[in-house]
Amino acid sequence: MCQGVVHTGQSSPLASSASNVHDIDSRHLGTLPTATGEIARRAYARARQAKVELGPLLQQSGLTRQLIEDSDARINVRAQIKFLDLVANALRDNCLGFHLAESAELRELGLLYYVAASSETLGDVLQRAARYSSIANEGLSLKYRAGPDNTIEFRSIGVAPHLNRHQIEFFMTVLLRICRKLTRVRLVPSRLQLAHRRCEDCSELSTYFGKSMDSAAGVDELTFVAKTKDVAVVSADPYLNKLLVANCEEALSRRPAARDSLRSAVENAIVPLLPHGKARASEIAKRLGLSQRTCARRLSSEGTTFSEVLDTLRGDLARRYLAHRELSISRIAWLLGYEEVSAFTRAFKRRTGKTPRETRQTRAPTG
Asked: What range defines the domain where residue 189 resides?
């Protein structure tokens, strides 16, 4: 749903070190989605408690200690996602986003929690979540669809959903916790779909959300049966809700409209084409309705190139796939669009200094 206490002022300038994130020049940071950073701060606190050396993780993600410790500073969404991945690896916690959401104090969500808590029905709660979540995280766009089923779609802004695992699982868990707390009913989604890959034996998630979990679905969605929209919120207060909705509308007007970068659109288009060897600049531009020259020019305005996007995405996906022990190295090479395992091995070692097999041996299996 959202993270942390809502700050309705303008975004604080990001530290210059954030320009390291995915090779994006600091001149373009103002165009990137930001978040309150509460989830990154929670991850930081958990890692520090576990005595993890945090300096290298902050540097790799493009964050600074000062940025984390300043609770009023907003954080670049890509940097937050990268930091969550690094902390999860350091802690060997394959469900970090889920665990952070489990222990979160829901009232710390501030205005967004209380506007939900004062709503009359669960359908109202889901509508408010969809409309106002971007106040706290511009990198997330929620869409509520009422009908035969009630579905909340979690759309990643500024990053491919396949790379947004811990943040998405945090949001989904928080939203379900809120629904259960406000209705005093242990609601179970009729379906959970995750864009990213999850092993079938991910017992914690399947126990919490129910058995109908579909990973690698290409979309992040929570679905409830139709009648749940009429479930009453026990703390409903229409007078307070009217006041809080007005505050949310004012806060929303202060935030830039959620807008995806071309980079994330390119990443989303690349992923399904990689195994078929069709992830070429010309093909991607065509699928996005652009000329190759226009696509290159717009990527340049975001501080990157098609080759950089492709190489970075392949590297990120490779590390993610290697955590899944059921995927063979040859299968991963195919998923990433390499014709030969040797080509994948050379490219991966050139980028990381280790072979895929060496990297797999040093990582915990992913659930």
From this structure: 16-254
- Tell me if 322 is assigned to some domain: yes
Query: 233, 124 in Cβ contact below 8 A?
Result: yes
User: Looking at the 3D structure of the chain, how many domains does it have?
Assistant: 2
Same domain, 346 and 240: no
User: How many Å apart are CA 14 and CA 111, to the nearest integer?
Assistant: 24
* Between 170 and 109, the higher pLDDT residue: 170
pLDDT tens, 230-242?
999 999 999 999 9
Task: In whole angstroms, give the CA distance from residue 363 to residue 367.
Answer: 12
Instruction: Kindly state the tokens that stand for 187.
Output: 């609601």
Q: 289: left (phi > 0), else alpha (psi -120 to 50), else beta? A: left
The mean of the pLDDT values for the chain is 84
- Residue 224 β-bridge partners: 150
Q: What percent of the chain is helix, strand and coil (3-state, nearest 5)?
A: 60, 10, 35
Q: What is the pLDDT of residues 159-185, one digit of tens each?
A: 777 788 899 999 999 999 999 999 999
For every residue of 243-260, DSSP letters joined together read HHHHHHHHHHHHSPPP--
Residues counted in the chain: 367
Whether 206 is covered by a domain: the verdict is yes
| 8 part of a folded domain | no
Compute CA 20 distance to the chain's CA centroid, rounded to the nearest angstrom: 19
Domain with residue 337: its CATH number is 1.10.10.60
Confidence of residue 258 (pLDDT cuts 50, 70, 90): low
Q: What dihedral angle (degrees, nearest 10) is formed by the CA atoms of 102, 108, 113, 114?
A: 140
Backbone angles phi, psi at 42, to 5 degrees: -65, -45
In this prediction, residue 20 has a pLDDT band, given cuts at 50, 70 and 90, of very low
